[in-house]
Amino acid sequence: MGTENVIKLQTARKAVKAKALEITVERLTRIKARMSDLGFGQTDLANGIGASVSLINQMMSRKIRRTQHFGAIARVLQVNLPWLLAETNERIDMRDLDGNPISEEILPEMMASEEFRKARVSLVVIEDDDVQKELSRHDMVCLREIDLGASQGIMYNEIPAKVRPHFFSRAMLAAYTPTDPKAIMVVQRIGDTMQPTLLDSDLLLVDTTRTTLDRADKIWTILYCGAGMIARLRPTSKGVRIICDNPTIADEVVEPGELRILGEVIGMLRRF
């Protein structure tokens, strides 16, 4: 697990009566994995959530099948509740630089804040062994989504990224590219710069290993003027020409250092 930059925020917790949720094998596996990461024993967890060691032991052995303590467990283990409940494969370390917890209630507001973007907060992307085995068993891969609206903030392989992952068939992806799936990202909600060739509702596959402009007029994902966009690029003697297929948008020639290539668009999925 790497070192994360997390902004310092005061936390505010609401008193909400928790529902009893099922203690599934996957949820229990994630609790145990997180306890192992933090060096927690059952006594530490019991003390943290204000329960007896006997109750924790029964939970761990699944002698009881439901509990109201998932929210408290997530807070004590300083991890986001959706990950603990196996509702997402994105694991977030819910603590600031001082080690203070960040509450679930404040997380959405925090992620949308300008302070968050300036802090270049990194989300720890963890797919535990059980999840990896399940994906492998079904021949699936997990792809991250490029965030065209941000030049900094949540980063994945040094590329602005959104939290939600996308799952694809490995065989389908191999039909588009031989590149390792870990280097493939997706883009959606691309705007109108490439209409009619590409529509705003299209989902694009981007090869992030392709960052050198060695072919003219290919379609690329780029960062320009602090935001992302999709455009054709053409090297010229005066610089790089940014070409939008939308006839209402004029071409622009910029110095190579004025833009950053995030990857080449290698495929497109369209809904009808």
From TrEMBL:
<dbReference type="InterPro" id="IPR001387">
    <property type="entry name" value="Cro/C1-type_HTH"/>
</dbReference>
<dbReference type="InterPro" id="IPR036286">
    <property type="entry name" value="LexA/Signal_pep-like_sf"/>
</dbReference>
<keyword id="KW-0238">DNA-binding</keyword>
<dbReference type="InterPro" id="IPR010982">
    <property type="entry name" value="Lambda_DNA-bd_dom_sf"/>
</dbReference>
<dbReference type="InterPro" id="IPR015927">
    <property type="entry name" value="Peptidase_S24_S26A/B/C"/>
</dbReference>
<keyword id="KW-0804">Transcription</keyword>
<protein>
    <recommendedName>
        <fullName>HTH cro/C1-type domain-containing protein</fullName>
    </recommendedName>
</protein>
<dbReference type="Pfam" id="PF00717">
    <property type="entry name" value="Peptidase_S24"/>
</dbReference>
<keyword id="KW-0805">Transcription regulation</keyword>
<feature type="domain" description="HTH cro/C1-type">
    <location>
        <begin position="30"/>
        <end position="84"/>
    </location>
</feature>
